[in-house]
């Protein structure tokens, strides 16, 4: 199911946001849900397959990052349903609708995984920042605040990844 052109259907709700506001916000949230699921599974790909001298440190870091993303999957999906829509969160739907590029399956050593994840976290961070503006402009400060919370953690994780790529 490609959701990029489909307007979400809404259930009746007593929430005090207009239907057009909810439709706009749910569309943005649905894009985020797909990207978050995709990024989480790509981070697990790195976690499972990293090799090299820094194996244990990176294995643990990638697992922590994937766990944080899993929390955001739940937050985003629950916000979609709170706004009266259906959260489409299967892996197939996520893959078809994600803005995250495909993970390089030939990555093995730590640097290759860190580089791949840094590129993907940067794309995701950009999407999240754009979503803050879009949802705020649509009139949903609560969803904009949810995105702000996600943005802080994603920026921190990107900083952690980039710190590993800096030669001292």
Structural description of this entry:
The model has no long low-confidence stretch (mean pLDDT 94). With 168 residues, this protein is mainly alpha-helical. Helix content is 71%, strand content 0%. It has one domain: Ferritin, core subunit, four-helix bundle (Ferritin). The chain has helices at 19-49, 55-82, 91-97, 110-137, 141-165. It contains five helices and no strands. Helix 1 (19-49) crosses helix 3 and helix 4 packs antiparallel against helix 5.
Name the descriptors.
5 helices, elongated, 0% strand, 168 residues, 71% helix, mainly alpha, single chain, Ferritin
Question: What is the fold's blueprint, element by element?
Answer:
Blueprint: H1 19-49, H2 55-82, H3 91-97, H4 110-137, H5 141-165
Helix pairs in contact: 1-2, 1-3, 1-4, 2-5, 4-5
């Amino acid at each position: 199911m490609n959701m990029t052109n489909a307007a979400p259907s809404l259930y009746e709700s007593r929430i005090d946001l207009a239907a057009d506001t909810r439709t706009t916000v749910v569309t943005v949230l649905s894009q985020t849900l797909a990207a978050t699921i995709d990024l989480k599974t790509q981070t697990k790909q790195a976690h499972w397959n990293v090799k090299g001298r820094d194996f244990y440190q990176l294995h643990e870091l990638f697992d922590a990052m994937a766990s944080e993303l899993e929390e955001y999957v739940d937050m985003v999906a629950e916000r979609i349903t709170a706004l009266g829509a259906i959260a489409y969160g299967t892996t197939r739907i996520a893959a078809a609708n994600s803005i995250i590029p495909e993970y390089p399956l030939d990555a093995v050593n730590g640097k290759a995984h860190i580089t791949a994840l840094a590129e993907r976290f940067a794309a995701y961070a950009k999407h999240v920042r754009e979503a803050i503006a879009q949802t705020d402009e649509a009139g949903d400060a609560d969803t904009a605040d949810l995105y702000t919370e996600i943005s802080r953690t994603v920026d921190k994780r990107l900083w952690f990844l980039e710190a590993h790529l800096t030669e001292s």
